[in-house]
Amino acid sequence: MFPQEGNFNLSAYKTLGNDYSRLIDKGYSVDFSHTLGNFDVAGRPGSLSVVYRAVDQQGVIVDSWSGKFLNQPGQVYARRVH
User: In principle, which of 23, 40, 48, 80 could form an S-S bond with 54, CB 3.0–4.6 Å?
Assistant: First the structure.
């Protein structure tokens, strides 16, 4: 949990979370790291760096992604899991 811009969790970041859910529903393990950065004087993060990988039961990586979101509207993340 972190202080988010009002629309941040309604677009790209929500799509990322939905991809995590789809990968888990397919039986994969999802390892991820979310790192906050670029804090303003009030302590609100200006960015979120993401790294994730999904592995099957044999430990084979089936998907991975890394990127950075700014804590503002208009961020882009294309759905990766169908």
Answer: 23
